């Protein structure tokens, strides 16, 4: 028996090992990125409705959904090439006031450090505005925000430039 079994009169895929319903008709680009229950660390790309662009996330290797592309180009071809009409399937996300101001000003170094909703375990660096320096944190592999760098040096370069500009 397959993990995915379609019933003739049901607009959902029924998942047997991990019980839940996944809409078969939901627009791929409107689905939230899902790492799935497995624990592999596979680099993939998905469309972020809130950022209006394709972003990298970590796929666990099984389950998840169709908002999961092997390359950035595949994601952009599918999700940026065509407009999606109708109501969005996801709820709008409210940012805390401090982060909303940081997003509006473009100062990612003022954004809080966010692990994101996925369950990966990826060492990353982000600027901690309270401490005034770049610190290590664990990123889950998807979601979060742009205050997320692969190395301490990348963080220092970006946020040092931000600090020197804002202090003038």
UniProtKB/TrEMBL annotation:
SUPFAM superfamilies: BPTI-like (SSF57362). Gene3D superfamilies: Pancreatic trypsin inhibitor Kunitz domain (4.10.410.10). One of its GO terms (molecular function) is serine-type endopeptidase inhibitor activity. SMART domains: KU. Residues 29-79, 109-159 form the BPTI/Kunitz inhibitor domain. The keyword Disulfide bond applies. GO terms for cellular component: extracellular space. The keyword Disulfide bond applies. PROSITE patterns: BPTI_KUNITZ_1, BPTI_KUNITZ_2. This is BPTI/Kunitz inhibitor domain-containing protein. InterPro entries: Kunitz_BPTI, Kunitz_BPTI_sf, Prtase_inh_Kunz-CS, TFPI/VKTCI-like. Keywords: Disulfide bond, Protease inhibitor, Serine protease inhibitor.
